[in-house]
Automatic annotation (TrEMBL):
Residues 4-192 form the Glycosyltransferase 2-like domain. Keywords: Glycosyltransferase, Membrane, Transferase, Transmembrane, Transmembrane helix. Pfam families: Glycos_transf_2. This is Glycosyltransferase 2-like domain-containing protein.
Length: 299
């Protein structure tokens, strides 16, 4: 088996079916399997997909989150490579074969690769990024204070899809590739692990590749695969709960990847700037603000 394609779904039956259709229509010249992990969907996903002979269907009795669900799928994978693919993506060319061919010829220290994702209008969207730091985390999450930071010379270069990483070659190295379409050497994930199960959602792809980089491995973007990511269509936008999951994962990442002193310093500064910024938002009610700020303080 060349490639095991792992797709995680949660109450997105139609979108997931379209994703699988695109994989089957566009993929040829390679031996692959599709492993579909259902995170306890309550729609008609189970009845629909357990009859689909194209996929190896795994139904979880609980919502494991993104990382643990992918780990579950990887546990039964037979491929030489893992291709983690979001359910809200569509393949537009023979992307799986292109990833496979590249990795077969590439430096063995390249553990992960991705591509330049586009939205439904074929505009470039988030495909890669830099690891979390104190300054880029505050700049990203506390936008109200961006102008203040700039006055003190803390103007931050783009955290995501920074053009400084790009070149005229067919591929370029990046700190991390987004987990929406992530191609991984299984021999590396078998030895160093896949996703840290402590993460439910967000930052797990960054944590994974940060761990790999500390062991000497690289992540790259290759330019030939064409994949549309219907970004955010499989999750609710703007909810306080989503913000809380996002910030909780940020704190978990900072605690795992930095020293205790750095984390304490980060925690204090971030909470001050974030809570002030969120309190000024006009998008949430007073009760939502109070509840959310209490959550942040407890982190």
């Amino acid at each position: 088996m060349d490639v095991s394609i792992i797709i995680v779904t949660y109450n997105t039956r139609q979108m997931t079916a379209e994703c699988i259709d695109s994989v089957c229509q566009k993929t040829f010249g390679i031996d692959y399997e599709i492993i579909l992990v259902d995170n306890a969907s309550s729609d008609d996903s189970k009845a629909f997909f357990e009859k689909d002979e194209r996929v190896k269907y795994i139904y979880s009795q609980e919502n494991l989150g993104f990382g643990r669900a992918n780990n579950l799928g990887a546990g039964v994978a037979q491929g030489k490579y893992l291709f983690l693919l979001n359910s809200d993506t569509l393949l537009e060319n023979n992307a799986v074969k292109l990833f496979y061919d590249f990795m077969e010829k590439a430096d063995r220290q390249i553990a992960c690769c991705g591509c330049l994702l586009t939205d439904e209008n074929h505009r470039r969207i988030h495909s890669f990024g830099s690891f979390h730091t104190l300054t880029n985390a505050i700049m990203e999450k506390c936008g109200v204070f961006e102008k203040i930071f700039r006055l003190f010379g803390l103007r931050q270069t783009p955290k995501y899809d920074n053009p400084k990483f790009e070149n005229s070659q067919d591929f370029f190295e990046v700190p991390f590739v987004t987990g929406a379409a992530l191609f991984i050497r299984k021999e590396v994930s078998d030895k160093y692990g896949l996703f840290d199960p402590d993460y439910f959602m967000y930052s797990e792809d960054m944590d994974l590749q940060c761990r790999y980089s500390k062991s000497g491995f690289k992540s790259v973007i290759i330019k030939t695969p064409q994949i549309v990511h219907l970004f955010g269509k499989s999750t609710k936008k703007g909810s306080v709960k989503k913000k809380e999951m996002n910030v909780k994962s940020l704190f978990l990442y900072m605690k795992k990847q930095y020293s205790s002193i750095y984390f304490i310093f980060f925690s204090i500064l971030f909470k001050v700037f974030y809570c002030l910024s969120f309190s000024m938002s006009r998008s949430y009610s007073l009760n939502e603000k109070v509840s959310h700020i209490k959550f942040i303080i407890r982190l």
